[in-house]
Amino acid sequence: MIQTITELASLRERVRGWKQAGLRVGFVPTMGNLHAGHQSLVRLARERADRVVASVFVNPTQFGPGEDYERYPRTVDADLSALEEAGADAMWLPSVETMYPYGMGGVVEIRAPGVTGVLEGAHRPGHFDGVTTVVARLFNQVQADVAVFGRKDYQQLAVIRYMVRDLAFPVELVAAPIVREADGLAMSSRNQYLSPTDRQTATAIHRALQAARDAAGAGTPLRTVEHDAAAQLTAAGFAVDYVATRHRDLSAADSDAAGPLVALAAARLGSTRLIDNLEFER
Ligand code: PAF
């Protein structure tokens, strides 16, 4: 049966016990409000480890001013059931004080230069500093052998990879596939902010990326592909932050670039910001 752990000493004792018994520990970091996408991360962690800890922590340092920190849905009881159903052994539920014991003015920050200045990083200044700052703490707290992150947050994964390598965290990273609704919309806790009409419109983001992939595959220059996909989203009613095609390591891709690529999009419907991506070969 799944256990809720709120004290760092209890978490350490539990994980130490597992490790002393020779068990491999998996970790899935989340901000709660769990859906089938999160559950797929837990199931993947289960395949790679003997015991699985999932954290639920809405991290204040990764939200910018005016973003949705306050209204981000907190659904701990439902999260516990979702984690248990997916096979997690423990829900790590730290308080803000446990995570940031010196208060918000005394946070030791972790920053990953290079990968954080573009795309999401350019549109959400400071966001990835908050992500690395909290994930470094979570890694130190949980001491897992393997951690699972979803590919939907494509750049987040690149940023975490960078940090793990740079700080030599002894953790294996596993990237999990995007889980989509039947109509193609990537699952996200933020989808529930959408009005019924916007929820219909939101499916355009995956279609635009599919069209981008197909056009790129047919030889259309990548800058044209990006422009056309952004125009498609604008016509559907989105305010587009970016549509970009890049190499898989997120380095800039020339218009005629070939090989493994990824198309990424971020766009807003009203006050709801959606991101998605699609890997393709050219
Ligand atoms: O992807 C998320 O839900 C968050 O960015 C993470 C990794 C849990 C850090 O707060």
Task: Output the structural class.
Answer: alpha/beta
Query: What is the element string, with H for helices and E for strands?
Result: EHEHEHEHHHEHEHHHEEE
Bound molecules: pantoate
Order of the strands making up the biggest sheet: 1-4-3-2-5-6
β-sheet strand percentage: 15-25%
Name of the top-level CATH class of the largest domain = Alpha Beta
End-to-end Cα distance: 47 Å
Oligomeric nature of the chains: single chain
In the residues, how many domains can be counted? 2
The total beta strand count reads 9
Mean pLDDT: 97
As a percent range, the share of helical residues equals 25-40%
Number of helices: 10
Features:
alpha/beta; 10 helices; three-stranded antiparallel beta sheet; globular; 282 residues; Pantoate--beta-alanine Ligase, Chain: A,domain 2; Rossmann fold; six-stranded parallel beta sheet
